[in-house]
């Protein structure tokens, strides 16, 4: 048992402590890798951006109209039920 304890203590002493410099190397490497990956991205053309923006706005307006119509129908139904109830 004492021999094992000594081996563990020696291993702990040989292991270098992590420093801030090591962490900064990780961050720098992460940024380098990110930059490398961003170079591989196929960016849309200005025409594609305009087209995609138009499609997104059209879908949003259509969804707003559908939600408004459902809300109005629900309000009308609620009002009719309230009037039939006599209150």
Structure, briefly:
This protein has 87 residues and is mostly helical. The protein is built from three helices and no strands.
Please explain how this structure is put together.
This protein has 87 residues and is an all-alpha fold. It has two domains: 1-41; 43-87. 85% of the residues lie in helices and 0% in strands. The protein has helices at 2-14, 20-40, 46-85. The longest helix is centred in the last third of the chain and has 40 residues, at 46-85. The model has no long low-confidence stretch (mean pLDDT 86).
Give the N-terminus to C-terminus distance in angstroms.
88 Å
Radius of gyration: 33 Å
| Shape designation | elongated
Decide which structural class fits the backbone: mainly alpha
Summarize the amount of helix as a percent range. Answer: over 70%
Helix-strand string: HHH
Task: Give the biggest sheet.
Answer: none
Strand residue content: under 5%
Keywords:
2 domains, 85% helix, 87 residues, mainly alpha, 3 helices, single chain
Secondary-structure topology with pairs:
Blueprint: H1 2-14, H2 20-40, H3 46-85
């Amino acid at each position: 048992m004492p021999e094992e304890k000594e081996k563990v203590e020696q291993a702990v002493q040989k292991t270098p402590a992590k420093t801030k410099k090591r962490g900064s190397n990780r961050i720098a490497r992460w940024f380098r890798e990110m930059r490398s990956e961003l170079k591989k991205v196929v960016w849309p053309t200005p025409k594609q951006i305009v087209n995609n923006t138009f499609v997104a706005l059209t879908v949003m307006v259509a969804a707003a109209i559908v939600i408004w119509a459902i809300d109005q129908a629900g309000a009308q139904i609620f009002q009719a039920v309230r009037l039939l109830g006599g209150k």
